[in-house]
């Protein structure tokens, strides 16, 4: 949990946000922000995700961090976005990824029509 709190605080500082500024955004006291960051008061998952979103950390990054138990994981070397226009193309692309046995692939799908 300590590493997660350090990650949250680091993102807050990187964004130039004071504890007071963040407390206004999150509608909590600045002393609560301080207690969270020092690990003196436990945070719920909802509070962690809200804090993270306000300092620019995606919820997926939080879940990845928690799943790895704070251990560093493989860092991506590239991020690829594809638009697929047919069901067949999507099926073939999914099959290719499976056949290549690529580890650590995240596929997000969004039906556009």
Automatic annotation (TrEMBL):
<protein>
    <submittedName>
        <fullName>Putative transcriptional regulator</fullName>
    </submittedName>
</protein>
<dbReference type="InterPro" id="IPR001387">
    <property type="entry name" value="Cro/C1-type_HTH"/>
</dbReference>
<feature type="domain" description="HTH cro/C1-type">
    <location>
        <begin position="8"/>
        <end position="63"/>
    </location>
</feature>
<dbReference type="GO" id="GO:0003677">
    <property type="term" value="F:DNA binding"/>
</dbReference>
<dbReference type="InterPro" id="IPR010982">
    <property type="entry name" value="Lambda_DNA-bd_dom_sf"/>
</dbReference>
<dbReference type="Pfam" id="PF01381">
    <property type="entry name" value="HTH_3"/>
</dbReference>
